[in-house]
Amino acid sequence: ILNVEQSPQSLHVQEGDSTNFTCSFPSSNFYALHWYRWETAKSPEALFVMTLNGDEKKKGRISATLNTKEGYSYLYIKGSQPEDSATYLCAFTTGKLIFGQGTTLQVKP
Amino acid sequence: DAGVIQSPRHEVTEMGQEVTLRCKPISGHNSLFWYRQTMMRGLELLIYFNNNVPIDDSGMPEDRFSAKMPNASFSTLKIQPSEPRDSAVYFCASSYGSGVYEQYFGPGTRLTVT
Q1: Over the range A57-82, which residues count as b (16 or more CB within 10 Å of their CB) and which as e?
Q2: Low-confidence spans in chain A with pLDDT less than 70
Q3: Which of B41, B95, B100 to mutate to test the interface with A (most CBs of A within 10 A)?
Q4: Cα–Cα 20 to 30 A to B6, which of A15, A71, A89, B33?
């Protein structure tokens, strides 16, 4: 059974803080790792799709790294803003996506 | 582009009734996915199609659930008969292909079975 673990489960930070969360996935038969951002009452939106060991992707203040050999990915948010409050999901794929439970971020003004 | 379209947005039905959820993927996408979101299990894949052909339906809970994709622009997820434990938000997503392509999610259908 393929398992995707995310930590922490939730996070509360102050506006301006930088933060990061972890996604752990099976290191064998790696195909791709996805990150999605999911705001309350909306649908998940893709942030990154990462395929190569050592990949680093960036979108504004959000960036992600990938280590396929040890089976983890980090998502970083620099200078968190209240609008960054959301649940961040990672998903491992061997063709179909297997989602983690997500990290819920709350940024206080 | 209108994005992935799902209907209805909300459905309230009584136990035992048939429920049909509908999805129109983004034009040009050849993969379509049905997900279910619950508090207990999070976001779980039910079934996905490539080029209108079901590829993996191992996530479909039981025989009461069925999905079809008669053409590239339409898919249905049917529950017959529905049960209270089917209450959840059902998302449809589409992409250019499975795996390395990002998925675009529809707004979801919130199903309540009483």
Answers
A1: beeeebbbebebeebbbebebeebee
A2: 1-2
A3: B100
A4: A89
